[in-house]
Amino acid sequence: MVDLTGYKLTFDDEFNTRSISQNGVGTTYADIRPQWRFDANSDIGFGKSSFVDSASGYDPFSVQNGALSITAVPDRTTSGYPGSWESGLITTQGNFSQTYGYFEIRADFASQTGAWDAFWMMPDKQIPDPNKAGGWQELDVVEHYGGNDKGTYSTIHTTDKQPDGVRWQDNRQVYSETSNPAGYHTYGVNWQADKLSFYVDGELKGSQATPSDMHSPMYMMANLATQDGASASSITSHIDYIRAYSKDPNAVSVTQGTVSAPDGKDPGLYGATTATAKSAPSAAGATAGSSSGSTSTTGEATGTNISSTAQPATGSSTSGSTTGSASVASTTGSGTNPGSNGSTNSTTSTSHPVTTGSTNTTSTSTGTTNTTAGSPSTTAGPVTSSASTTNSL
Ligand SMILES: [Ca+2]
Fold it and tell me: 319 in the Ramachandran plot: left (φ > 0), alpha (ψ -120 to 50) or beta?
């Protein structure tokens, strides 16, 4: 079981309220990645889906029962890549990033074929690939495919040179299965200087050595994408919380928001500590978030970590040292997949977790989409400087 004794809670969104905007200014999340903006109200997305802001005319987000719901629907608005599904992504880019620590999402991921959920991280600043192999740094805490509901894919993307014959990330994945995939589960990574350990429901599923290029602040993203095969009228995923922790002595702890597990099964903080609520006069030993003394909103809880002015540069065209979003739009000739076409190179297919994951599973429904599905990996865009608040080291 994951043990966070000595850690501090450094980011917390229990999703009692909604704090999402296009650029993240004044909110916990942005819903359009600046380097992957496609039009006025959408992010190019990946797989068979674009990510839209509510200004598109379709709002993929809602907060109810203590959870954020993300609902994907077939092409509905004029925003987004033509013909692609429209869904949602949230990112803390520009607002929160951290070096090392434990990062966890509690979610009820969609189980319909074609659903593709992810909770993943990207560095504030990409380190150039010394091998020029088309790689970049990315940490996929969990990717979940509705067609393989029991499976959890955790993947480390690095530019470190891999052994001959081993593709970019093939030896950097932990795959596991859960016997009861329905309902909420937690997915976490403990990222430390020496190793990365992946957890499902608090249980260790595997570890890998931390690559040489993963020692700088990373921000978090969560999204519901779709792939080929999505045929439902809509697909919905639910996120109970996103929490981050640090054992850096200098880390600034936050106050936990009011716990609001839709199924009443919050796993707790694994021994980590939170900031003391400002107004908890007589609640001796009060559990954070459980009494009126600590009914801070999630905004307050996360706000201490948010730099209200820090925003990454929004000009995608100037940040395109590898694959700028401008070229995404212009090179999606086949029109089958905004994400993968956007990468316009062979790393797209090799970066897809199913490519490797399919060797570990008998699932065919996910495996069939290898060649067309982009992944969180394919979304990697160069990130320009971001003066985000960090809990480094
Ligand atoms: Ca919640």
Answer: alpha
